[in-house]
Design goal:
single chain, alpha/beta, 36% helix, two-stranded antiparallel sheet
Length: 328
Amino acid sequence: MSLASRQLGENGPRVSAEGLGCMGMSEFYGSADEAEARQVIGRALDLGVTFLDTADMYGPFSNEKLVGEAIADRREEVVLATKFGNVRGENGERLGVRGDPEYVHRACEDSLRRLGVERIDLYYQHRVDPKVPIEETVGAMAELVEQGKVAHLGLSEAAPETVRCAHATHPIAALQTEYSLWSRDPEGELLPTVRELGIGFVAYSPLGRGFLTGRFRSREDLPEDDFRRVNPRFEGENFARNLELVERVEEIAAEKGVAAGQLALAWVLAQGDDIVPIPGTKHVPYLEQNVAAAEIEFSADDLRRIDEAAPAGAARGERYADMSPVDL
């Protein structure tokens, strides 16, 4: 199996058509097993996945170290992306969002050290700091490019006007935002904006935080320490209504002889060659299933039926319990 590659933006890196989101290997989705996580990363590279996504806040801090150690002897095979901006303390406490130049430089130095690399291939501002003009933040990020510490710049969960201002300050290679069959908001303004500007689009949670795989039939299927237990889309009536959406997706997937999650992931891939989904997983079998989804082809009728089964706005509940950190 060999994954095709895609270009991230007009001036960004060329990466595998699917990346690997590493967040859940350290936090948020139940217990973590670092040995298994290293196996997943190694297998991903073997399968042609070249694009790995982490962030300083994951763990906190431990995910970058895990990823860095896992790729240490294969660094040249990887386009490595990490993020700054969501500030956390050593005990995991959340300390707000920062985008001031001093913090940008310090965060980059810390990430380089934890990752064990000399340069970050794609460096994102994880969340926009409303207290700091985006031009100041991106200006500081541009200094990191000039210093050779960062190759390309990105933004995560930024609004169209913010993206425009940032891109005018320094070329932005990629915008990362949640995008899937149950999170189709980017289709309104974000995707047209980044396409106009020649910016690539990285889709995180393309499997709806695992919900679109059909593995969760009730909230009790989630581990006790899984953050999805307090995610609005996994609660009460929202869960039941969203499960109806998944069942419609499962029906179409069964007709094509693929898993529901594979259908959902292939749909994201089919939305444009400028889109690179980064599904996350902690287990090799799920990784292999995700990579195989890149081989699924859709007819016009398939795409019409999927669109009818999961139209924009069909999911019930907000994407996060508190949407305030998201620059919308």
